[in-house]
Amino acid sequence: MAADLEKIVEELSTLSVLEAADLVKLLEEKWGVSAAAPVAVAVAGPAEEAVEEKTEFDVVIKETGPKKIDVIKAIRQLTSLGLKESKELAETAGSKILTQVGKEAAADAKEKLEAAGAVIEIA
User: Fold this and answer.
1) What is the pTM of this model?
2) Same domain assignment for residues 8 and 31
């Protein structure tokens, strides 16, 4: 019996928040009960975890460094901006080179810009 319960727990653990809410509704209808308080607690836990995990990042230039031309070239490659816009970004500390990009894209951009001599922060 305990093995069966563990199997059920494992299967329930794979449900998304929406699937868990649908399951609760079905059980309430089937058994004629209300599980309002436990559902609020169950939904709050996974929702909080989802908020904590950041999926979009900004690549911010802190300092151009000694190789300004190389940094401008790297910005142009990453953003497809023109020379003037890329130069303005390179010269303005705190400028966002890329916004709301994935973790891998942000890391790749940081690597390229740092190789060109810039000081970069991922926010």
Assistant:
1) 0.55
2) yes
pLDDT tens track for 1-59: 667 888 888 888 887 877 877 887 887 788 777 765 544 445 455 555 555 677 888 89
CA distance 121 to 96: 9
The average confidence (pLDDT) of the chain is 81
Domain that holds residue 36: 2-52
Spatial CA neighbour of 72 closest among 99, 115, 64: 64
Same domain, 78 and 35: no
CATH code, domain carrying 64: 3.30.1390.10
DSSP secondary structure string for all residues of 11-24: HHHT--HHHHHHHH
Q: Are both 112 and 79 inside the same structural domain?
A: yes
Whether 123 contacts 78, CB under 8 Å: no
Is the dihedral angle over the CA atoms 105, 107, 110, 116 positive or is it negative?
A: negative
Decide if 62 contacts 120 (C-beta within 8 A). yes
